[in-house]
M67 family metallopeptidase (Erythrobacter insulae), 131 residues
Amino acid sequence: MSLEVSRAVIERMERAAIAAQPEEACAILLGQGNCISALLETRNVHPDPRTHFEIDPHALIRAFKAERSGGLQVIGYFHSHPSGDPSPSATDRAMAAHDGKVWAIFAGGTIAFWRDNKDNFDTLSYAMGTD
């Protein structure tokens, strides 16, 4: 499966990751179907934001309520790895909900997309959409 990701969303993820260093940035990926067209940046509320992320639960609740009211779908989640690579870490794997959502991870100047499946994360290809 391939995703289409808005150029503006890719750029915002990169800026958020760089601005948050040395902490992990995080956000909610929004869109329709396999198209990610918006990014809702959120606070990282984890007590140790240099090595972990936790999306602000209030922002997550608002995003799901908006989806139920006809807004954009919650496609998945974004976070950065200030030191490391753009693949799910052991901590990411342990904390994952295994709900089929997309995860975008930025590290070392690269963004990678993953599907959080029942047993593991699968790599997703993506094409940058035109805005």
